[in-house]
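Sharing a chain and its predicted structure for anyone who wants a worked example. Both blocks are below, sequence first, tokens second.
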Amino acid sequence: MVLQAIKYSRGKLEILDQLKLPHHEVYIQINSPEDARSAIQSMQVRGAPAIAIVAALSIAVKASAMLAGDLHYSSKSHGKRLLIDSWEPLLASRPTAVNLADAARKLNAITLAAFKKPYVNLASVLEAYIAAAEQMLEDDVQDNKSIGKYGAEWIIRRSGTESPREKISVITHCNTGSLATAGYGTALGVIRTLHAFGTLNQVYYTETRPYNQGSRLTGFELIHDGIPATLITDSMVGALLKTKRYKERISAIVVGADRVAANGDTANKIGTYTLAVLAHHHSISFLVAAPRTAIDLSIPTGESIVIEERPQNELTNIKGPTNTAMAYGSTDHATLGSMEIAIAAKDTKAWNPAFDVTPAELIDGIVTEKGVVEKDGNGTFHLEKLFNESDLVEPP
């Protein structure tokens, strides 16, 4: 059973608090857009697809509460403030991920169209928004499974594997699984599918400093699903490829994306660019896995992507439970999540960008729910074809 990080039923939204993982599973309730913004900024929920879904559903929960109340005291202007204006602070919470803006654009269009219908009442507009947000949740899970299938098949073809007995290994970075999406995952969805095919030897996953999404979250998911995996530090990837590439049949590095520019330049968790350089040097396939909602055709290159910078203390300090608390099986949530240790000298100045941009020239393929896009003979991605149904070609 795949981990469920977002629990939703109409009028109720709960998210798995990722700050408590991997040591304790605690769900927190999201009752409003304000709750969602706080959870996104604090990284209780993270991952570009997941924050978009949580933001959209937080407004849906509030809309459900409005529907359940006395609408005689609610005007259309109240509805617009909730369904339209609530997005502004949500959009400012994590500026790099495009999925958030994409969800806002689509849901705002649906809301405004509903308001323009003749003889419309507020209840019907609220219902239209709720239904659209719920559909986004359902679509994301199905899209991730398609990404997993297409990406796994692409890696197998590129690896030259002729038989399921010829198992391959892959490397991944950060967390791109059920904790970062509505379910199943993007890059981790590809890995889950390789495992389901019986083709995966093992996955090497980086700890992903400074927030340790790899060691805390990806490791948690891989262990939960029984997928063979080995943790490495971010700085070990080069040594791994040099010493174990052939023995372990390491065939690809697969990562997620927070925003993909029109030319294929990709913003993802800091350290991704380094992995792409290493993949290129060692002639290893480098695959970006992301839904089409992560592709931003409005920006020509990665130079236009705004890179979020996080607080310095995330780099100079580290949080987690003590071994003593774990050994004695402490169930005190505060104790398990509040121990903070300084790992740098006092007054250390730190630079902490949350993302970097990998140039398209270092990327071999971009897999979406519609298939894998590769560069043409001139080394150019044509991502616009993903949005023109007549140009889409089913992958072989």
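Comments welcome. The chain is about 40% helix and 15% strand.
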